[in-house]
Amino acid sequence: MRIIGIESTAHTLGIGIFDSKKGVLSNEIARYQPTGGGILPRDAADSHSRNFPGLLESSLYKAGTRLSDIDAVAVAQGPGIGAPLSFGVSMARFLSSYLDVPIVGVNHPYAHVKIAEYFGHAKRPIVIYVSGGNTQILFENSEGFYDVLGETLDMGLGNLCDVFLREAGEKEAHGSKLNQMAKGGKYVRMPYVVKGLNISYSGLFTHAKRMLGKYPLNDIAYSLMETSFAMTVEIAERAFHMKDAKCFLACGGVAQDPRLKEMLSLVAKENNAQWYVAPNEYNGDNGAMIAYAGYLMQEKYGFFDMKDILPYPDYRIDRMKALLEKAGKI
Ligand code: FE2
Predict the structure, then answer these.
(1) What per-residue confidence (pLDDT) applies to 121?
(2) 292 C-alpha to center of ligand 1: Å?
(3) Which of 73, 136, 241, 280 is the most buried (most CB within 10 A)?
(4) What is the C-alpha separation between 233 and 213, in angstroms, rounded?
């Protein structure tokens, strides 16, 4: 089966193609760049609509396939930002009707986890899902769904880094910038907020913001990064022991960060455990992960009725079972 996946939940439009015999054939992305501040939903949707035709063409070209050879369509249904998310869902519905092929809806975090498991061959890991909007510790239950064991009580880890960079006057607000800024920094005290298996970053953000102008920027950046990553890895370690797990897996955009990977490797070593992370290309939002997760979904639950292919902006991973029940799939 050759399945095309469409990702448009936030600033990235991704179109990827997965073949059940050959694996990932293509994974093309186009990113919306905000002119200042954060994502403007309508602008993100406009950007995706401008990029869609060219990206579809290049994804097919890289995969060495034609549109007429596509057997099925997969699409991210959420969570995400209304306007860009709806655009991707509409395009997927159109492609499915136009090509007369079946369609399957995918939960975006589930796709992040599954593509990372695919590359790492990880079995029931403690999942550290870290992105701009999401920070969760996940574990697969006996029914094959993911339970959220712990999570941020306010902002996502990626968002914490981005908003701090903007407060510091940086135009390029993304994690790798924070990493560069932190080079040579010294640690200064920061609030460390772990509540059982949950964490809170907002106090850390406020504290870092108040330090601007009073401490060297690289000291603040370094301390913010060390503290927020340590809090995140700590709850993963707590979950690891609670579930008597055997390995860790990091996924999502922030899983690309070298310092987070280093911390995770140290914690895994201390616990005699393996740890996994997908290649960077597959940790940021992308279409290949949606295509692959869609392939797995249809194997387990079959394809969806078109009436059930809707955008769900607040579609948490722990709502998958409820949605599948509602659609009559289980
Ligand atoms: Fe994501």
Answers:
(1) 83
(2) 15
(3) 73
(4) 29
